[in-house]
Amino acid sequence: MSLPKVDKIWMDGTLVDWDKAQVHVLTHALHYGSGVFEGIRCYETADGPAVFRLTEHMERFDRSARMLLMELGCSVDEMVEAVKETVRVNGLASCYIRPVAFRGYGVMGLDPLPCPVQVVVAVWPWGTYLGEDALTHGVAVGVSSWRQRSVNANPPAIKATANYLNSSLARIEANKHGYEEAILLNEDGKVCEGTGENIFIIKDGVVCTPPVSDGILEGITRDSLMTIARDLGYEVVERSMVRTELYTADEMFMCGTAAEVAPIRSVDGRSLGDAGPVTLELQKAFFEIVQGRNSDYEDWLERV
Ligand code: PPE
């Protein structure tokens, strides 16, 4: 995917031209992965562009930074404003939003604390993440030979740039094996998540997703879908699951800001068939909400 350029990027409090949003090659984060980020989507609605659960995303950003003792130098409210301003100034009806905070230029070595912190918000138009047909025809996934990072090493709960080395290894392997996406198990064999998505299975009408304690990112899309499923009357449980449950699930899907709600059509070459009824119902409800067509969830939309 080559990046579609837009006009401005927000960098440390000011809007700069896209081509001028640059850093030094001795930026700490480039060498040691000392950064945290978010992925957020702004959707086109009848009342103009609306950012889905923006405050919750910026709260997670703030938590990720705090866990790494990284001073952002601005409050969650100020970050929310920075995002809105960046979307507005670029005149986009819908887009993907990428806030990133990282240790900048000035000091080298493994102690990041003396390094300055830089904060950036970039936006660009980003269509379907897992391929053109992902949302309709579903994706083929494979269980990775790479393991999910332990909760005690590069903790999955921190949305840190360094964590995505592991995701990249898994994604490369999956793609080389002909799958669209990988699923990672932890060292105990428990199902965790995709390289950039949470996962759900549906078994006997119950909607199940792995618990945070097995080592996942606490996804905002995951949280939204648990709420939506409960509101639709489904039983929703967070519980550990093992690989074979993926083969015997009635339905399965992945979800995330970039991936949205993507049905899974096969796991390790074992077919699950076309997207099932519960997946389709949740996917439909999700898109109605993010596109501002369900006023019951209006609180989740933040107008720019
Ligand atoms: N797990 C991981 C590892 C993850 O990266 C994401 C988001 C999720 C779960 C879902 O979280 P949420 O977006 O809050 O529902 N992945 C982001 C980055 C993707 C990328 O390729 O970059 C995203 O979806 O924006």
How would you characterize this protein structure?
This protein is α+β, with helices and mostly antiparallel strands. It folds into two domains: 8-124, D-amino Acid Aminotransferase, Chain A, domain 1; 132-290, D-amino Acid Aminotransferase, subunit A, domain 2 (D-amino Acid Aminotransferase, Chain A, domain 2). Helices cover 27% and strands 29% of the residues. It contains eight helices and 17 strands. It has helices spanning 28-32, 54-67, 76-89, 134-137, 164-176, 220-231, 243-248, 277-290; strands at 8-11, 14-17, 35-37, 40-45, 48-52, 95-103, 117-124, 139-147, 181-185, 191-194, 198-203, 206-209, 236-238, 251-256, 260-267, 270-271, 301-303. Strands 8, 9, 10, 11, 12, 13, 14, 15 and 16 form a nine-stranded mixed β-sheet that branches. Strand 12 (206-209), helix 6 (220-231) and strand 13 (236-238) form a beta-alpha-beta unit. Helix 2 (54-67) packs across helix 3 (76-89). The longest helix has 14 residues, at 54-67. The two termini are 26 Å apart. The protein binds ligand PPE.
Task: Please outline the helices and strands.
Layout: E1 8-11, E2 14-17, H1 28-32, E3 35-37, E4 40-45, E5 48-52, H2 54-67, H3 76-89, E6 95-103, E7 117-124, H4 134-137, E8 139-147, H5 164-176, E9 181-185, E10 191-194, E11 198-203, E12 206-209, H6 220-231, E13 236-238, H7 243-248, E14 251-256, E15 260-267, E16 270-271, H8 277-290, E17 301-303
Helix pairs in contact: 2-3
This protein binds ligand PPE.
